[in-house]
Amino acid sequence: MKVAYILNTYPSPSQSFIRREMRALERRGVTVKRFAMRPFDGDLPDPSDREEKRATEYVLAKGMAAMVFAVFVMGLRGPVRIYKALFLALQASRNSEAGLFKHLIYFFEAAYVARRIEELRIDRMHAHFGTNSATVAMLVSEISGKPFSFTVHGPEEFDKPAAIALPLKLRKADFAVAISSFGRSQLCRLVEYRYWPRIKVVHCGIEPHHYESARPMPSTRPIQLVNIGRFVEQKGQLILIEAMALVTKRGVDARLVLVGDGPMRLPLERAIARSGLGDRITLTGWLDEAGVRREIEASHALALPSFAEGLPMVVMEAMVTGRPAIATWIAGVPELVQDGRTGWLVPAGNPEELAEAITQLATCADDKLRRMGSTARARVLMRHNIDIEAAKLAEHFAQRPRTQPS
């Protein structure tokens, strides 16, 4: 089977889960061709991401002439399909935040990809995220007659389903994937009951062969926490700074490492300075996978104070390393983190509750922390093995398509 993955910006440091999924499919004998609209414009510290960049075909880099030519070629081969795809682009643009002009660009991008998948004899398309990559995949399907599917992660797609025409995409897709049961429930809200069987759950996953053993938790104190992710409002790092200030006032000796970068970096740096926590909190910037793993192994727990999430990969990476998590009780997180068994769950946006969880962690007996870490590791290995999850996805790909563009 040959599958085209259609992505928007790829690869980026926060998208290792896509790379793992594609490579797991390839280990199963599925041929995966990578198409992305544009490359990530920042640094790629991980060598695997640089390899992915070399393996990816970038559509916008081909230029407008190539896309216009593709519209002409595909129009000659299937004039009805090309007009239907154009109409579908116009339909998707209604009430869309992207607007008509961008949807016309998506139409031209789709024509180019449709021409390429014909040349490469690709069987079907799959997109990650329900935003513009899924729009392009839907239009490619309309032009080519090949089925498409897409994975929805959240939370952005759930915040604005009408603005990204998500119900339309769910109806047009051969099937859609949610990464958690919570995510599936949110997609079921958007379409009629008869479409619900098309909405599948396939988890993101870790590669167990990279985690054959877990390094013992640090036996020394102070307690060290690690937070990993983009510095954006929804990740809630500013609340974590508040919680660190509260536990420090209580006399709890704790340290925090923030791994990542983003538009909230300057506000975070200012909050750290205001709180007088410069000697307790370190910002590393983006790290490669080995660097992330080193920071997790040097910690006693992961802290994830997010306001909105899908099902975070960093929680899986921490848990498989034998570290419990302090996370917010939102979205799909409680499907992974079990309060009192594999970590602590706290209300989102509440620095006092977060500080209390950090205090409990700091006063927790070492043997109990180790048991929580071992339980966390076993749970991730059972639920989030990427080879098992990719096998589920490959099985869905292999089914006779339920929908075909007319």
From TrEMBL:
Keywords, A to Z, come to: Membrane, Transferase, Transmembrane, Transmembrane helix
Q: Which organism is it from?
A: Pararhodobacter marinus
Q: Which Pfam families match?
A: Glyco_trans_1_4 (PF13692), Glyco_transf_4 (PF13439)
The answer on whether this UniProt entry bears the keyword Kinase reads no
Supply the InterPro entries for this chain: Glyco_trans_4-like_N, Glycosyltransferase_grp1
Q: Where are the transmembrane segments?
A: 58-76
Ranges of residues in domain Glycosyltransferase subfamily 4-like N-terminal: 60-208
Q: Which residues form the signal peptide?
A: none
Which GO terms label this protein's molecular function in UniProt?
A: glycosyltransferase activity
| Protein name per the record | Colanic acid biosynthesis glycosyltransferase WcaL
